[in-house]
Amino acid sequence: MRASRKKSKGLKAKGKRPSPLAGCADSHLTLHEEHVSGAEGIYPKNMLHAIVQSYIDRARRHSRGKPDAIQITVERLTQKPRQVAALPVVTLKCTSPAQAESRIRSLLAAAGISERSLTAALSIVRNRPVMRGAALVHSRSGKRVEPDRIRGIRASRLGIAAAAEKRLSRQLSKFNINTNTVKEALVLASKVAEHPDIVAELCVSDDPHYTTGYVATASFGYIRIPHIKKKKNAAGGRVFFLKETADTQTVVRYLERTPVLVSVIQPCRGEASLHEILDHHQ
Ligand code: PML
Q1: Ligand 1 atom 3: the closest Cα is on which residue?
Q2: How many Å apart are CA 122 and CA 118, to the nearest integer?
């Protein structure tokens, strides 16, 4: 599901022109539209009607406001989804964007990401316009290798099995974080981390009111980072760090085309300090 809205006339009234990149990042958007919300999943055929209805309801009551258009695409999978486990979830103790940056540096360095790659990634998630998809950055050289820097890579064909979602909801409820935003980000991060050539992911939401981001790796799990940015900041994005030896096309095909279904849930923890997370990992 993709919901979009015509851009407000405010831009014109102030004599501003939209950035030549704004709105082009999503292939479904024109220069005059902006993204409101999006979601996807993998479901059995008999749930189709209920799911389409629930996506329409979600699109109509998103915190970013009412959409002018809701597009829903239904696709039959021709390949059985690969079943994977969700990454374990933990929330890093963090009280400010400055602390978040220093902790992200420590976590990503421990995951094998070089200073140069980290600098490239931070500039991607802080700059405007926001890419709709993710950037691919080599984990040592910091080289960007996504084929289209405006569109980026859209991790797609992913979902969570109904029983696993119930278990996940129960776990997340213990820590008051049982929301679609957390569950969907976790499903995406779990698909991404499953690829042997992806070393880590950094994500900052571009929602100006959502200030929790995450770092995810196969071995650390899904580490939520509160206060990753200041409120009202609409910058954000995703960076997938690749091994230098990765074949970019193969990774992109996996991310965009291979169906992956989360069917196992690992234990979730509450808050932990950086040291607890690093020690837990050893
Ligand atoms: C997004 O999809 O916009 C990013 C969501 C990040 C969720 C982080 C969390 O709260 O776990």
Answers
A1: 205
A2: 6
